[in-house]
Every structure is written in structure tokens, then in C-alpha cells.
Amino acid sequence: MGILKLRATRIVGLTLVGISLVLAVTLFIYGRANSAHLPNIVLITIDTVRADHLSTYGHDNRTTPTISKLAANGVIFKQAFSQAPWTLPSMASLHTSLYPSEHNAISATTKLTDEVETLAESLSNLGYYTIGLASHHFVGTRFGMDQGFDVFDESQILGHNGVTSGALTNLATKYLNNREQKPFFLWVHYFDPHVTYVRHPEYKFASGYEGQFSDEIDVEALDQALINRQLTHEDVDYIRAVYDEELAYTDSWIRTLLDRIAKVSAMKNTLTVLTSDHGEYFMERGRFLHGKDVYNELVHVPLIISGAIDTNLHGRTVDQPVEILSIPRTILEIVSDEAHIFRGENLLSLAESDPGNRFIFTEGLFAWADSFRKKAVIYKDWKLIYNFDDNSYELYNLSSDWSEQLDRWDEENDEVAAIKRLLKQSLDQYPNTEGLSAPEIQLNEKTVEHLRSLGYL
Ligand SMILES: [Zn+2]
After folding, report:
1. What is residue 393's three-state secondary structure?
2. What pLDDT, in 10s, does the model give residues 289-309?
């Protein structure tokens, strides 16, 4: 009820809340009456996936053949951006279509408020049986991410030591086989590409290395190498290659997941959306991991919508920038003509024709302190970043400088002056509301230790 409630108190008090309740009840009744015709929905999110490490986004290693196949039967978005560079704010945006500064689940001691309407809640109201499988604290119950799920299993939140793709896939199978006979919404959050990077030697991307790192590269090993300034090109290549093996391993379990889903729901009746919450650094800017910046290494993520969509769209590519917070609106508008409250774009209509004139926002927030705050806007080929800490701007042209090396902010010519004006104006207006209040939470020592081992301290 978040957006409605927020506006209602401002505009006409309880009237809108009343209308929205009637709407919700109507949707509920409508959903129960008509749910038999709804397609099944699978949302696959993989933690920590840089788009440029996927085969289908042009990576050299053959990391993700299953995802390539999914893209061949769907629409691939070449420039999808997450709304934050770490899990909690990013995934809260994905499930609510609110920007981080609107839902305000933006630190490791806040949770997503119950005030929001989530994708799962809307689908549940439409008559879906909803299953959520979490493998990371930040997508778990403690952080309010279980809202709207009939079944929510977080037994695979194992911290940095777990290899969980197989167990998650088996849990998905178990819950699908035991589900109520309604259309289903299954959300699986895979986690293996997140640090600790573990070798899966069958893929051989990292074979033959004889340097300082072992078969398991954890946060401490990366920190130590940075502190000791003992990193060679071979080391960094090896780290990337082990990460690639994690991607390939996860991709193979996604193949198993899709094969098993196909046994209970034909592909043409199954809408599949695949994306990630953020990317990862591999020594670009001298850093590893993720969490503070809004550069492309951390916010450019894969996005594929596949299966139960118009077959004319299969194999289609959208080249212009999009936001992953558009996912709820897109799913709702594919499965139903009913009104909904989600913002963003209908991503499939962009696959039909794309004016490409959107402003894309992303926000940098550090999990443990109110510093390193940044916000950025992308418009066509340009990206403007505002750094709260020192009140400075950076401007990049993404078509000629995707890796954001050449800051154009101080350049003085008409083209740059015009784009600066336009982007600065749009950043000034972001976000459009003062935001919801996110409840504070207490973390126990074990959770803090888990998060530390995942690089969040
Ligand atoms: Zn993450």
C-alpha cells in the first residue's frame, strides 16, 4: 500500500486509502475467479552478476549457455541498470518499483517496511501461489523481503561458505511439486557468484594458475593482497576466471531448474525474468567487491524476459538504458489488464518500439554508514554522477567511454553545457517523495559475522 498511502495522506486523507482497499478487494475477487488463465511466473535473480561476464553480453569465456538460450526465446536488455550497488536497496527497488531513497531500506540496520506493496503481494492478490527462496540475509525475512509469499524458505542463507545453487534448485522443485493448484510465482535468488569465489574445475576457466590464491578466494585473501600490494595481472585474471566458474556453475543449475519447471509448466505458459542485483569490481579503480560506487562495473546487470511473451519478440534486443525497478510493472501488465501501482516502464513495449528518452537513476549507498553517498542519472549516452560527500559531479559519455575513465564535467562546449543542464535538473528532482520510514533492526552477532565475511563491513 506504500505509494498510495504516502500520497493519500498528503492529498485527500483517507479517501484514497478507501478506494485502494476496494481496489485490492476487487483485484482479490477478480484474481480468484480468473486465475486459471494466468501464465506461471519465474523470477531468477543471481547475486553479483556483471552483465559483461555473461556469454550473451559478449564475454570471452562461455560462462552462461542456459541464459543465452533463455535470451534466444525472449528479449535481452543490453543496458539494464540496478538501482543500487548492493543487495538490500537494489532488491527492495526491484520488488517495489520504488527508488532506494523512497523505500529507504538503505543500510544494513534497516528493513523494507510493511507499508510497501511488493510484486509478490500484487501477484498473490491476483490469485497466484507465491514461492520465495532466499540465499542471502539481505533478501530474507529479517530485511522484510518475504512480503507476499505463501512459502518463503531461507534455509540456504549460509554466508560465504555455502555453495547453494543445487540446494536452491532442489527446494524449488520440492515446493513446485507440493504447490496449491493455482498459477505460481516462483522467485529464486541464487548466490554462488558472490564472494567467496570457489573453483568449479570442470569449467577449466581458471586452470593452470600457480600464484598466491587458493581454490577458494575469500574477502580476507583479497584484502590482504591489496594491503600487501602484491597483485599481478595473472592473479586478477585468475580471480575473474574463478568468478566465471561460479557463473557457469550457477548457469548449469538454472538449466536444471528450467528443465524441471518445464515438466510442470510448458515454456509458452511460463514467463521467465532473469536479472541480478549488482555487479562486481575486479581491480578496476583498484578495488574488489561491490557496495559504494555507481560506476558501470557495479550497476550494469543482465536482464532477460523470456517464455510466455509474444513470439514475435523472441530474439529481440533493447539497446537503450532501462531500470530493473520496471520489472513489477512489466510482469503485472503481461499477466493482467487490471490497474496496479507499480512505476517504471513496461519493458516489453520498449521491445516493440523504443524512443530511448528515459532518465535512468541509480544510487550509491554504503551499508554501514551515511557516507559515500552518490546518485547518478543516465540519459541516452550520458551519465552524470553526484557525490554527496564533497558536493562534486562527474560526467561521462557511455558510448565512447563505457568504463568511465574520462570525466567530462569541466569541459566547456555547447553540447556538454546542454547535457549538464538537463541531467543536473533531473538529478535535482530525484527522488520525487520524501520516502517511507524504514524500520530499524537489530542484527545478532552471527549475522554481523556472516555479513563481514561477505565483504559488507
Ligand atoms: Zn548482492
Report:
1. strand
2. 998 899 999 999 999 999 999
Helix or strand or coil: residue 40?
A: strand
What are the tens digits of pLDDT across the range 362-393? 999 876 766 788 999 999 999 999 999 999 99
The Cβ of residue 440 has, within 10 Å, a number of other Cβ atoms equal to 9
pTM, rounded to two decimals: 0.91
CA 279 to ligand 1 center in whole angstroms: 8
CA of 337 relative to ligand 1 center, distance in Å: 33
- For 58, phi then psi, to 5°, come to 95, 15
**CA 138 to centroid of ligand 1, rounded, Å:** 8
Site of grid cell 528532482: 429
**Distance in Å, CA 8 to ligand 1 centroid:** 33
Element (H, E) at 197: strand 197-198
Which triple of cell numbers denotes residue 193?
A: 557468484
Spatial strand order of the sheet with 129-133 comes to: 151-153, 129-133, 184-190, 40-46, 270-276, 303-307, 74-77, 316-318
Question: How remote is the CA of residue 148 from the centroid of ligand 1, in Å?
Answer: 21
The rounded Cα 228 to chain-centroid distance in angstroms is 33
Cα pseudo-dihedral 278, 284, 287, 288, rounded to 10: 50
Percent of the chain with pLDDT strictly greater than 90: 77
Task: Determine the Cα–Cα distance for residues 293 and 302; give it in Å rounded to an integer.
Answer: 18
Candidates 74, 81, 196, 95; CA nearest to 138 is 95
CB neighbours (10 Å) of residue 224?
12
Residue 36 is predicted with a pLDDT of 62
C-alpha span between 143 and 134 (Å, rounded): 11
User: Is 198 in a helix, a strand, or coil?
Assistant: strand
